[in-house]
Protein 1
Amino acid sequence: MPRKRTLIPSLLEWTDRPLPVPPPVLPVIAERGGTQLRRPLPVAIIDTREQNPLSFRRFRRWFARIEERGLPLGDYSVAGMEHSCIVERKDLADLIQSFTTNRAIFIHRLRRMSELPHGLLVVTASLGEIKSEYPYRAANPNRITQSLLAVLAGLCLPFICTETHELAEEIVASYLYQTFLYDLLDRNGHGRYLADGDL
C-alpha cells in the first residue's frame, strides 16, 4: 500500500546546508618567541563606486577604521597599500556581464591587478552557480567558468567563490587584515610568518 505524502516534511528530513561558524575575534595573531607582537590595525577602504558594497561592520575590531573613498583600481584595499593590495568583487550577474559585454575592459583591469603583489577576485556565487544555466541570459556557463580558470592560470590572479554576500564580507575583511599584517611584519624585519614554524 503506497504511503501518503505529507505536505510539510518532518524536521528530521530537512537537509539545510550547514551554517558558517561566527568569525574569530581577530583573523590571525602574530607572535615571536611565544609573545604576541603589538601592531597597529589596518584602515579598510571601500571604493565609492562599489554598487552593492560589502559591509565590514561586524569586523570593526579588525580595523582602526573603515573609509569610503575612490580607489585607483578595484573595490577594496587597505590605507597605504592602495597600489599593492586590491580586491575586486563580483556578484554572478556582474561577473557574467564583465566576461561578456564588458570583457575587454574587465580583462584589462584584471591584467593590472595581476601585476600587483596582492590581488584577489572574489565572486559572491558558488562554483556550482557559475557552472549552471543562467535563466534569462544567453551567456554560456562553460565560457564564464573557463574565463575564471584562465584568470587563475594565465594571469596567476587568484579568485575565491563565496556562496553568500555575508561570507564574502568575512573573507575580504580577513584578506585585507592579513595582507596588511604580513606586509607590516616584513617591513619591520620580522619576516613573512605569523609565529615560529608557521607559514
Note: The mean pLDDT is 91.
Protein 2
Amino acid sequence: MTLISPNTVLANALTNVEDFLAPRIRASKPLRIALVVGTQINGAPHAGTSLVQSMAFATAARLHDRHGLPVEVRFSALDNAPHELATDPASGHRYQRAYAHILGTDGITDLVGSLYRPLFDALSERLDVPYSVETYSEQQATVLFRETWLRVLPRLDAARLWLAPSTGVPHLRVPCPQSCGWAEKYAQRTRVELAGRGLARVSAVCLHHGPYTATVTPTGGGYLDLATLYRNMVKELVALAEPDVLQVMVKGTDWMPGSLLVDGALQAVGLTRGQLPARLFCPMIVAETGAKLSKSLIRSGEAALPAGAEPWMLDTRKWPGTVGQFADRLLKLAGLLLSHPRHFFRSYSAAELSRLMSVPTGSPTT
C-alpha cells in the first residue's frame, strides 16, 4: 500500500508520533497512562469516530511497548447529547431532552453495548489493552466532578469569555426536576448562585412546568448538563485528581481550535501551562471540499455523499464484514498512520480512506 504524505513542522520535529508525549512523561513520571476518548452517542458511529477510537487503542499499545507502563483506554459515552428538540411558542427559546433522559440508564447501557462495545472488545483483545466505559451521566454524578464544578463557580467570571466568547454566558442546563427532562438549550433564563459551602442553587424555566429551582451539592441534586467547552474544562480539572496517571485526551483534529479556548479557560481559573492536559489530535476524514465528513449534514440533505465515500462511513454497522474484520482493517490503517508522523498529522479524504481500508490485512505497506 503506497502512502505519500507532505512534511510539516510537527512531523519534522518527531521521529515517532508518540514522541509528542515525551515532555509530559519526563515531567510527571506517571505510573500509568490512560487514553481518554469521548463520543456523543447520538446514533451509529461514523468512520471518523471509529478511526479515532482505534487510534486510541493503537497509541496506547505503542506507549506500553515504548515506556513499559500500564495503559488503558477510557471511553466517555456522552449520553447528554440532544435527542429531542422543541421551541417554546411563548419565548421562542429552544429546548432539548438528552438521550440519557429519554432512554434511561438501561437504554443507554443497551445503546453503548450494541454500537460501541463490540468494536472495543475486538480492539482490546487484539492489542491486549484494557478499556472502561463511563457515561456522562455517571461522571456528572460523582462527588469529584460536582466538587470541582462548585470550586470553579466563584472563578467562572474569569473564564466565561473563553467558554462562550460570543455571549460570555457558558451554557449550563439543569433539566426540570419533575422528570420530564426538558431544559433550555442555550440557558437564556438559567441563573446560578452559590448558596453556601458546597451548595449551588439553579433557577430556570421548564417548557411545560414553568419556573423551577434545583440545588446542586457534591452528593446529589440536579443533573449538571454542561455545554461542550464548559464540560471539557471541568473534566480536565477532574483529571488532575489522579496525579499518578497521565491522561491523554484523544480527539479528532476538528477539536484543535476549541481546545485553545478550553486551555484559556483552564489558565483563567488557575492552572499553569505545565498543568494543561495532554491531547492527541487524530487525522480527520474530509470531503473533497476539505470540510469534515458529516453524517448529519448528509442526512439532512445539506451536503452530498462525498466522491468515493461508502455507506459504512456514515454508519459503521454497514461495514461489509464482521466486527472482527473491521477491527483488523482499522488497526492495519492505524499502524500505517502511526508509522510516520507525516502520515498521522494530516487529514484524509473519504475516497482515500476507502482505498486504504480496502487493502486486505496481511498486505505490505509503504
Note: Residues 147 and 218 are 5 Å apart (CA to CA).
Protein 3
Amino acid sequence: MRLLLLILLLSVLCDAEVPHAMQVNSDEDLKYALFLKNPILYKEQIHQEGKALFLKRCSYCHGKDGSGQGGFAADLRRRISKESAYYTIKNGGNNFRGSFAGGMPPMIKDNSKAQSVAQYISLGMPKSHPGALVYQQTNCARCHGESGHGRKYLAPNIHNFDLKTITMILKNGKNGYIGLMQSFNYLSDEEIQIIAIYTLSLSHSHLVGE
C-alpha cells in the first residue's frame, strides 16, 4: 500500500514538472520566432542567440570558430574541402533523401579528373580553373547546375553555403569523408534556423577576411 502511494506521489510530482519544462522550451521558441519574423530589427539578438546555440550544440566537433579543429570535423567557413568533394565524386552520396531522392552515384572514374573537379569545387568554382571544363564534360552541371548552386529535387548547392543547405544538413545529418555527423532533428525549427543563420555568418566572415 505504501509503495503504491509513493508511486502515485512521484507520478503527481513528475506531471507537475512537465508543463514547466515544456513552457521553458516554448518560451524560447516564441522568442526565436519573434526574432526570425523581424530579422533586421533583431539582427544582433539572432547573432548572439545563434552563437550561444552553436557553442552548445556544434563547437565540440567544429570548434568555437567553426574551423573544424584541424580536420576533426568539417570547416564550416568553406562550403566543401577538396578531400570531401573528391570522396563524394568517387563514392557517390546519399545524405539528403528527403530533398534529393535519387542521391548521387559515383561520378568520375579517372582519378586525375576527379581530383581536378574536387579542387575546382573547393576553391569556389572559379571559371579559370581547369576543373571547370571537366565539371561540364562529366555532367556534374546536369544536377548541380552550371554554377554549382544546385537544382530543385536533383542536387544541393555545392558552390557556397546558404540557409537552405545548412538547415538541410542540420535536420538530416551527414556522412562523408570525415565521418558521420548526427542529425539535429530533435531541435525545434526555430532553433535550427537560428543556428543556421549563425553558421552562415561564419562562412561570410571568412570570405570577407581573405
Note: The radius of gyration is 21 Å.
Protein 4
Amino acid sequence: MSNLELADRVGLSPSACLRRVQELERSGVITGYRAVLDRGALGHGFVSYIGVGLGEHTKDAQESFERAMERAPEVVECHNITGTIEYLLRVECADLASYKQFHTDVLGTAPYVTSITSYVVMGSPKNLRC
C-alpha cells in the first residue's frame, strides 16, 4: 500500500508515517517486501501439506532429506518440526496428476523417508501469507 494510505490508516501525517517506516527498515523490524502471487494463475493451484517421517534420526539423514527437498521446485516450504514426524512440507503443483508424480518420483525416492501423510488444501478462509 502507498505511504499515503498507510498514514491515513494509522492516523499519522504522511511524513511522520514515512519516517517511522524507514526507522523500522533501518532497525531490521521490516526485513523486506514481497509480491503476492496468484498460485492458480501460475499453474500451481493444487496445494497440500505433507507430513514426512524419516527412518533414521541422524544429522546425515536430515541433511540428505533437506537437500532433496531444496532441489524439488514443488516444495515451497520445508519445516523441521517436533512430534511424531520430522518434517512438514508445503507443496504446490498444477493438479492432482502432477502431485501424484511428485509424490512418487520425489518423495518416494527421497533418502530415509519412511512415512508420508498428505493433507490437501480445499480452501483457505484465513491466510495471512497474502
Note: The mean pLDDT is 93.
